[in-house]
Write a structure and sequence with these properties.
Length: 452
Amino acid sequence: MTQAIQKKLSDSAAARWTALIIVSVTMMAAYFFTDVMSPLEPLLTAAKEDGGLGLGWSSDDYGFFSGSYGFFNVFLLLLFFGGIILDKFGIRFTGIMSTVLMFGGALIKWWAVSNDFEGEIFGYQTQVIWACLGFAIYGVGCEIAGITVSKVIVKWFTGHELALAMGVQVALARFGTAAALSFALPFAKANGGVSASVGLGAALLCIAMVSFIVYCVMDRKEDKAAAATANQEEEQFKFSDLKLLFTNRGFWYITVLCLMFYAGVFPFLKFATKLMVIKYGVSEDLAGAIPSMLPYGTIILTPLFGYIYDRIGKGATLMIIGSVLLTIVHAVFAVPSITSVAIAITMMVLLGIAFGLVPSAMWPSVPKIIPMQLLGTAYALIFYIQNIGLSLVPIMIGKVNQANTLADGTIDYTTTMTIFAVCGLIAILIAFLLKMEDKKKGYGLEKPNIKK
C-alpha cells in the first residue's frame, strides 16, 4: 500500500477503527476455539463410564493433541508459505482462505470428539488422532489469519495509533481466550460433554468467516477509490528479498523472543486448569476462572501498554520487564511448598501484566525493522518459529506430567513449571540483546510510534 493510499484511508479515524473492529471479531472467535479444550482437560482425561462425560484420554494423549495445533505449520512449512501467499496475493485472498481452513478444521475436530472410535493409531487413540487432524488444519488457518490481520493493522495504522490498535486487537482476541477458559467446562457439563463446547467454538468460527468477508468488501471499495493514485510496487514480494530477513539480527531477536515468551504462556494455559485443581485444591467448576484472569487482564493492559508505546516509546524496555515477570511467576509456581490459592491468583495477575507488556511492544516493533513488502512473510516466519514451541512444548509437558503422576493420580508440577521458568530466563536474555541491537541499528524501538 503506497503512502498516498495510506493517507486517504488511515487519516479517517472512523474508517481505520471500523476495519480494526471487524477483523478483531474474526480473531476473537479464533482465540476462543484455540483454547476451548484447555479447561476441558478434567473431562478429557476422566474415565469413560456409561452416562458419563469423560473421554478416557491420558495426559500424554492430551499433550499430543495440544501440540497438534502447529504440526502442519511446523513440519510442512504451511505458515511460512502462507506469509508468501499474503505478500503475493494480498490480504483479501489470504484472509478468506485462512478463515475457511479454520472453520473446516473445527468441524473435523467437533466430529472427532462427538463420536467413539475403536483402536489406536501411532500409539494414540483413534479419536485423539482425528481430533489432532482437525486441530492441525485449524491451526494453519488460525496462524495465517493472525499474520493477515497484523498486516491489515499495519496497513491502516502506520503513522497513527499502531501499538494501541494492535493492543486493542490482541485484547479482543484475549477476550475469546478468557471466555473459553471461563465457560467451556460449565457449558460442556450442562450440555452433554466436550462436543458441546467444541461445537459452540465451530459456530463462532462461522461468524468469524463472515466477519472477514465483510471486511473484504470494505477493503475492496477503499482500494478501488484510491486506484488512480496507487503504486503497487511497494506491495510486490520477491524471493530475493528474503535475504533482508535472514540477515537481520534484530528480526531474529524478536523471533526468538516470541518463541520463548509464548512457550511460557500458551502451553502453560493448556495445563493451568488441572494445575489449579491438583496443586491448589480449587474445584473443577472454578479452576478455569483463575487462568482466565490472565486474558481478562490483558483486555485492559495490552491497549494501555500499546498507548504508552505509541506516545512514549520504550518498546524494548517493555519487553524486558514482561520477560522478567514471566520468569518470576513460573519460578513461584515451581515451588512445591507454595499451595496458597491467594498466591496462585497473585501470580496469575503478574502473568497477565507480562502478557500485556510483551505483545503490546513486540508486534508493533516488527514494522520498524522490516519493510511493508516483506511484512507478511516476516510475521509468518515469526509465527512459524513460535509454532515450533506451541507444538513441541505441550507434547513435552504432557510427557513430563505423565512421568510425574503419583500413585494417587495427582501430578508433581515442579519439573513442569521449572521448564516454563527457563523459557522466561531465555526471553530476558534475548530482550536485552534486542535493546542493544536497537541502539546499534537505530530501529527506533525505544521511540514513540505516532509521528507528529
